[in-house]
C-alpha cells in the first residue's frame, strides 16, 4: 500500500476558456486539493506529457487527463490515440469531456482507449456534480498502476 | 445414308435374281443330268445287248459248223470200219480225223474210242477219251456231253456212239473236245470286254473274251444265250458283254462339264443383268430418296421436280414432288411471316439481331441491326469488319477481346456497352449482347447477337448517377452539419447558461425580483434552444443512422413507457396496451422514439377536466400492421389536423404546453421511411387518436418479390 495522496494534478485540454473556467470552479468547490494544468491544444498537451520545451520541463505526471474533443489543430480523438499508443503515457486515465452525444464520437473514443466518456451536462450544477464524481472515482476509488 | 439405302436395294435385286437363277439352273441341270445319263445308259445297254447277241451268234455258228462236220464224220463208214480193222484205221480214218480237227477254225481234238472208251486213233493236240462216261455213251448208244476242267481251263468234251461195221461187231464212240478258252478267243471283239459263261448242272465256268475285264467294276453288262446244237443238250452257254467304265464316265463327265459351264455362264449373266437392271430400277427411287433426304436433313429446301412415267414409283415420285412443293410453300410463308413478326418486334423494341456462323464466317444482320448503325442493308456486306468499322476506335480493342472470349468458348455470353460512330457520323452509345452456341463437339459454331442503341438510357443513367452523387454529397454535408451543430452550437449555449447561473449565485443578495426574472428568461431561452437543437438533430438523424432489423414493438413500447414514467406518474394517467405486439422490420431506436413521442403527446395534452386515459392498440390488416394511440385529451381542432406533423409546428402557447414542435415531425418521418402512413382522428375537447400503419416484415425468401 502506498501512502494516500493528498494533492492531485489534472491535465485539462480545453480550448474554450469559458468551459475551462467551469471546470476550475467545479474543482475549487470539490473536496480535493487539485492543481489544474490547462493547455489549449494537442501540441501543448503532448509537450506537457512528455515534459518537452522550457515551459513544461518540470511538468508533473497528471493523475487524470480531461480531454475535450473539439480542439483547434489536432482533434481530441487524435490526441487520445497518441496518448494511448505511447507506452509511457497509456496508463494515465483519460476522461473525455465533450458536448457531443454523437454515437460515433463515443464509440471512437472508447475504441481508442478512453477510460471514460462524459458528456457535459447543460446545467452548471449537474456539471459540477459530474466533475466531482470524476474526481471521486479516479482519486478515491480506482487503484491506478504507476 | 442415301447411298446406303439405294445400293442395298439394287444389291437385293441382284442377289434375289441370282439366287433364283442359280436355283433354276441347279434344278433343270440335275433333271437334265438324270435324263441324259439314263438315256446314255439305255443306249449303252442296247449296244451291249446287240454286241452280246452278235457274239453269241458267232459262237453258235462255230458250234453248228463243228456239229455238222462231226455228224458227217460219224456217218462215214470208214469210222465204223475203223473200229474193227486196225489197218483201215491208220490208212483211211486217221486222215479224216485230222481233216476234222483242222477244218473247224479252232483248235479241236478228236479220237475214236473202243467200247471201253479207250482211244483207238486220235488227231489234234490234246488227248481225248479213256473216260468211263464214254463207255456209258457207248453202252447207252446216246451222245453225251461233259464239262471238265483241265490245266488250260474249262474243256467241253462230246462223245457220239458209233455202231460197228457188220453184225456182231463191237461198237465204239467218236469223241472230240474243245477248250472253252479257244471258243471264247474266236468270239472276242476287238474292243470292249466280256466273258463266255458255261453253266452245267449248277457248276459255272467262265473265260474272258478279249481283253481282261474288271468284272466288279463293270457299270453295265449284257448277257446273251448261245443257241446250241442238240448234241450239246444239258449245258447252257452264254456271252456276257460289259461296258468299260470309260464308256459311261466320259460322256457323263462331258455332260456334267457342259451343264456346269452353262449353269455358271447363265448365273453370271443373270447377276450382271440383274445388277444393271437393279441399278436402273432403283435409279428413280434413289433420286426420290436423295430428294427426300436433302429435304429431311439438308440445309436448303430442294427445288421442285417432276417424275416421268406412270408406274407406281413414278406416282410415288409425283406425290412426293407435290408434297415438297407444298412444304416449300408453307415454309416460305412461315419464314416470311416470322420475319415480318421479328422485324416488327425489333423495330418496336429498337433491338437489332444478327447471327454469326463461325464455320463460314458469314453474318446475317436484321434490318434493325443495320438501322442501329445507320447502314443501308442494300449497300452493306454484313461482317466483322463492317461492324467494327462502326465501333468507336477507342472501344474496338475491348469489344474485340470480349467477343473473342465468346467465340473461343471462354465465356458463354457477353453484354458490352460501347460507343459507335454511325454511318451518318453521329456518335451513339450501343449495347451488344452475344450468346455462343456450341456444336456437337463442344466448339462454338454460332454466335447470336443483339444490338441496341442505349444512348438515351446512357444519358439518363449519367444524370441519375450525377443526382445520386449530388444527393450523397448533400447527405454527407447534412450529417456534417448535424454533427457540428450538436457540438459547436450547444457548446457556447451551455457556457452562456452556466455562467448566467454562476452570476446569479454570485450576486444573489443584490438581485431585485425583476432582474431575477430576466435571468430566468435567459436560462429558459438557453434550455429551449438546446432542446430545439437536440430535437432537430434527432429529426435529421432519422433514416441516416438507422439500422433496420426485426423489432419487437412490444419491447419498444415498454422502453418508451419506461422513459415516460415520470410524466405518466405526474399526470396519473392510465395506459392500456395489448399483451402481445408484433415483431416488425425497422430500427429499434426509431420505434421506441415513435411510441415515446405519441404516448408522450397523449399524456402531455391531457384534459384538465378528466383523468388521462391512453390506449395503445394494433391490428393485423394482412399486408401490414395498423397501430393506434388513443387519448381522451384536449383534442385538436379539425382545421389544424394536417398541420400537426409539420416541423416546428406548434398549436399552443409555450406557457400552456411545452414543446419544440418537432416530435410529430419525427414520428411522420419514421413511419413514412418504412412505407407506412400516419394520420390523426380527433375531435376538439374529446380526444385524439394517432394512427399509423407499418408494412409487414418481409421474409428474406420473399425479399424483392413483393413491392
Helix count, DSSP H or I runs of 4 or more residues of chain B:
16
Main sheet characteristics of chain B: 5 strands, antiparallel
Helix/sheet category of chain B: alpha+beta
Terminal Cα span of chain A: 12 Å
According to CATH, the fold-level topology of the largest domain in chain B is Beta-Lactamase
Q: Record the strand order, biggest sheet of chain A.
A: 2-1-3-4-5
Rg of chain B (CA only): 75 Å
Biggest interface, chains and residue tallies: A-B, 20 and 20 residues
CATH architecture of the largest domain in chain B: 2-Layer Sandwich
Which short descriptors sum up this protein?
heterodimer, A: 146 residues, alpha/beta, Rossmann fold, five-stranded parallel β-sheet, 5 helices, globular, B: 707 residues, alpha+beta, Beta-Lactamase, five-stranded antiparallel β-sheet, disordered N terminus, disordered C terminus
SSE blueprint and pairings:
The complex is a heterodimer of chains A (146) and B (707).
Chain A: E1 7-13, H1 17-28, E2 33-39, H2 42-49, E3 64-67, H3 76-84, E4 94-98, H4 103-112, E5 116-119, H5 124-141
Helix pairs in contact in A: 1-5, 3-4
Chain B: H1 2-75, H2 77-84, H3 86-103, E1 108-113, E2 119-123, H4 132-140, E3 144-150, E4 153-162, E5 172-179, H5 180-187, E6 193-200, E7 203-210, E8 220-225, E9 235-243, H6 245-297, H7 312-349, E10 351-357, E11 363-365, H8 367-372, H9 384-388, H10 393-407, E12 413-421, E13 427-438, E14 444-453, H11 455-506, H12 513-541, E15 549-552, H13 553-563, H14 565-571, E16 574-576, E17 583-586, H15 588-604, E18 613-620, E19 624-631, H16 663-673, E20 678-683, E21 687-695
Parallel strand pairs in B: 16-18
Antiparallel strand pairs in B: 1-2, 1-5, 3-4, 4-5, 6-7, 6-9, 8-9, 10-11, 10-14, 12-13, 13-14, 15-17, 18-19, 19-21, 20-21
Helix pairs in contact in B: 1-5, 1-6, 2-3, 6-7, 11-12, 13-15, 15-16
